[in-house]
Amino acid sequence: MNSKLYGKLIFEFSHPGRKAYSLPKNDFGRHEFPESMKRRNDAELPECDELTVVRHYTNHSGNNFGVDNGFYPLGSCTMKYNPIIDEEIAALPAFSNLHPMQPEQTVQGALEVEYNLQQALSTITGMDDFTLNPYAGAHGELTGLMIIRSYHESRGDIKRKKVIVPDSAHGTNPASAAVCGLEVVEVKSTADGLVDVDHLKPLLGDDIAAIMLTNPNTLGLFEKDIPEIANLIHSCGGLLYYDGANLNPLLGISRPGDMGFDVVHLNLHKTFSTPHGGGGPGSGPVGVKEHLREFLPKPHVVKDGNRFTVESPCCCRKSDGYCFKNNRISTYLGNFLVNLRAYAYILSLGKENIKNVGPLATLNANYIKESLRNDYELPIDLVCKHEFVFNGLKDKSTGVTTMDVAKRLLDYGFHAPTIYFPLLFSEAMMIEPTETESKDSIDQFIEVMRVIAKEARETPQLLKDAPVNTPIGRVDDVLAAKQSILVYKDDK
């Protein structure tokens, strides 16, 4: 590809009078629009021939990186390969052409999918029921916290406004709590990266609404003290909330409901084969134990004999205040086609094979960790689950940073892992291989990481200048953030 053309906008290829498409003859007659609806000026659209348009967007598409064309070891995001059959099922006209306002009797198959997925997710997580309405993980977090807050307030326990969040948590946890009108209380981690139970105990009281935990946590470590934590939280009247971002390594092995969690949100776009990245679509279902079932948002699919029906939102007001039950948190039943992909994924694995997901993800992560421990600093030397964290290169004398390593990975055709998160380590590099990667692809990644470590020792400036094999070199992130150019302006 001609590097001089890369980065140009389609507007920059525009020439007056050029056309790529002719509209068909108007068979509808002439109809006048109201003046208020008419443009004051012509639309600012590029004028290009078809070949220019095709080449422009084809060249750009070749510079997209996705899991279909390379290894994507992005920690805590489970960027794994999604089977094409799930995409094909979601594209079937019988599903994709449905309208959310159709009468129930005409969409019984779709409602059966939703109901069966609710049941499957309940079984996988150890919950009693699920809502599929939330559109993404953070939306699921907010929904789960709203359920928790509604539960406490419905019992007149209105002073429970504090949510405990570990210092290693995903950033959406405290953000979701704040949006829900709750106060965030941070609990520290031990030197081993686990929740510090001794620090947790003084934080407990009759004002605690819940604790939000990810297990395995952001460091890829299983919270071995979860039975004690669950007992402590429940003893003070609080609830346990499970952030399902890291459910991947637990599939078929362990269930949040069995650990004592009351509320669970899942990221279907991470764990259960749906598109991830690029802004969506996503799905963040929320599961609850029996004592919280009545607080699930509506609409909600239920089975009535041999038919499936939808419980509608309730708009009533109780004599003792607002009805905390049945509130709507999204339109209709969430992202149906995303939910459909997840259902197809679960069916294709079955209970016999879904139990292999977690062990394979764990095996792949530990294999990379042990293979690279001589070149990269391992701040916590424990068996990990699906992901682990290095603290930059082991040899700090080179002056090469985690950012430099990440940029150099691009030159070798690998997407960089998550860097500088979690904030517990100054040069954090979080790597998650997922269960769908073969030993061949993992070995290639390990070899490249070793080569980069060798380059850092022998030619550190090479890493400082990286990437050098990409159409665009290293950009000034600070300048791009402070002086973003978001609108095209024709200077001709």
From TrEMBL:
Record key words, sorted: Oxidoreductase, Pyridoxal phosphate
Ranges of residues in domain Glycine cleavage system P-protein N-terminal: 26-297
Top EC class for this record: oxidoreductase
Biological process per Gene Ontology, one example term: glycine decarboxylation via glycine cleavage system
Coiled-coil spans in chain: none
Catalytic reaction annotation: N(6)-[(R)-lipoyl]-L-lysyl-[glycine-cleavage complex H protein] + glycine + H(+) = N(6)-[(R)-S(8)-aminomethyldihydrolipoyl]-L-lysyl-[glycine-cleavage complex H protein] + CO2
Oxidoreductase recorded as keyword: yes
UniProt-listed Gene3D superfamilies: 6.20.440.10, Aspartate Aminotransferase, domain 1 (3.90.1150.10), Type I PLP-dependent aspartate aminotransferase-like (Major domain) (3.40.640.10)
Modified residues (N6-(pyridoxal phosphate)lysine): K270
SUPFAM superfamilies: PLP-dependent transferases (SSF53383)
Cofactor(s) named in the record: pyridoxal 5'-phosphate
HAMAP family documented for this protein: GcvPB (MF_00713)
EC number(s) reported in the record: 1.4.4.2
Cellular compartments per GO CC: cytosol; glycine cleavage complex
One Pfam family hit: GcvP2_C
Molecular function GO labels: glycine binding; glycine dehydrogenase (decarboxylating) activity; pyridoxal phosphate binding
Protein name per its UniProtKB record: Probable glycine dehydrogenase (decarboxylating) subunit 2
Chain's role: The glycine cleavage system catalyzes the degradation of glycine. The P protein binds the alpha-amino group of glycine through its pyridoxal phosphate cofactor; CO(2) is released and the remaining methylamine moiety is then transferred to the lipoamide cofactor of the H protein.
Domain of life (superkingdom): Bacteria
Oligomeric and partner information: The glycine cleavage system is composed of four proteins: P, T, L and H. In this organism, the P 'protein' is a heterodimer of two subunits.
